[in-house]
Amino acid sequence: MKTLKAGDKVPNFIATDQDGNTVTLSDYSGKKLVVFFYPAANTPTCTVEACNLRDNYKVLQDEGYEILGVSKDTQRKQKNFKEKFKFPYPLLADTDKEVINAFGVWGPKKFMGRIFDGIHRITFVINEKGIVTRVIDKVKSKEHASQILN
Fold first, then answer.
1. Could you tell me if residue 26 is inside a domain?
2. Most exposed: 35, 60, 61, 129, by fewest CB within 10 Å?
3. What is the pLDDT along the chain (150 residues), one digit of tens a residue?
């Protein structure tokens, strides 16, 4: 797994959000961006993580951050997840793993003694020029916003 690191330029990507809109990295040019990757919509830890960002969205925006959530769920699953929990930010339905692979967050995981490939729960903080300034690879779902802000 070759994950982007602090100092790396994020490659431009094209993906579809929960409503079928096309989203690219260049849409966020000149803005600070938080891109958080989560394994699956509507699962307990992913829900806590995404809701923590929702609950702190105003504070994050006040600090100049835009937010994008990404998983390989379908557009329909992402839409249901967003509507159910009223997320104010887009969720990318990266079914072809273009964004996931661009950031290097797909790889071997271990769960209950089983090894399989999947999305690693990692968050990237990106500056106005598209450069990764920070990688949070030990995401604490209940404290995610404060991890980003500190």
1. yes
2. 129
3. 799 999 999 999 999 999 999 999 999 999 999 999 999 999 999 999 999 999 999 999 999 999 999 999 999 999 999 999 999 999 999 999 999 999 999 999 987 889 999 999 999 999 999 999 999 999 999 999 999 998
Which amino acids are annotated catalytic?
46
**Whole-prediction pTM value?**
0.95
CATH number of 86's domain: 3.40.30.10
How is residue 8 annotated by DSSP? P
Q: Residue 7 falls within a domain, yes or no?
A: no
Number of domains in the chain: 1
Show the domain range for 84.
14-149
CA gyration radius, the chain: 14
